[in-house]
Amino acid sequence: MAVPKRKVSKARKNTRRSNVWKLSAPAFCKCPQCGELKTPHVVCQNCGYYKGREVVKVEEA
């Protein structure tokens, strides 16, 4: 059996674990209908269109 020769310090242990929790920035694309930024594969919040079709009726305030 493999046995560690020395104790792994808290700093070394935490730096190893810290690389797992990195978050990436969310992706955005331009809506072809209105030009507003939106997340891909999601209905546009501004105009209600998805893949060139109106999916949700959006009332303008």
Description:
This protein is of the alpha+beta class and 61 residues long. The chain has a domain at 28-61. The protein contains 1 helix and 4 strands; from the N terminus they run H-E-E-E-E. It has one helix at 10-18; strands at residues 29-30, 37-38, 49-50, 53-54. A hairpin with a 6-residue loop joins strand 1 and strand 2. The protein is rod-shaped. The termini are far apart. The model has no long low-confidence stretch (mean pLDDT 90).
Which short descriptors sum up this protein?
rod-shaped, 1 helix, single chain, two-stranded antiparallel ribbon, two-stranded antiparallel sheet, about 60 residues, alpha+beta
Strand order of the largest sheet: 1-2
The value of Rg in angstroms is: 23 Å
The total count of helices amounts to 1
The low-confidence parts are none
Series of H and E elements: HEEEE
Shape: rod-shaped
In total, how many beta strands?
Answer: 4
* Strand percent estimate: 5-15%
CA-CA gap between termini = 69 Å
Sheet with most strands: 2 strands, antiparallel
What is the compact description of this entry?
With 61 residues, this protein is α+β, with helices and mostly antiparallel strands. 15% of the residues lie in helices and 13% in strands.
Blueprint of the fold:
Blueprint (H helix, E strand, L loop, with lengths): L9 H9 L10 E2 L6 E2 L10 E2 L2 E2 L7
Antiparallel strand pairs: 1-2, 3-4
